[in-house]
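HUMAN: Spend a minute on the protein record below and explain its fold to me.
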Amino acid sequence: MENKKFIERFSFNQESVIAFSEVSRDTNPIHLDKDFASKTIFKKPIIHGFLGGSIFSKIIGNDFPGEGSIYLKQEMKFMAPMFVNTEYEAIVEIDTIDSERGRAVLKTRVYDTAGKVIIDGEALVKNSIFNL
């Protein structure tokens, strides 16, 4: 595999948050109710952590390594809140490759525009391209 890193800029709108709350059934008002959220430490609604982390599934399944990827494990630490209509940058980077098993450990991170880590994680992925 030539490239060792994939970068994607993204954001979520409130419609995505609502759709995710319907699918996940997580209707915590911290995500959906401006009045409720205004009384929290965040002062406004925040995106579900797993919605923010879902960018990794999109990247790993479609782009890097892409087609044929099998997600085996994902760890995520939510370091700071994410907000709607805010640009973020996801970086997925190869850490180690186990060519005998066709697996790789990928560093998975989301950054805000100031370079602060918002989500810090690691994925274990199987894909035939790792069979070197």
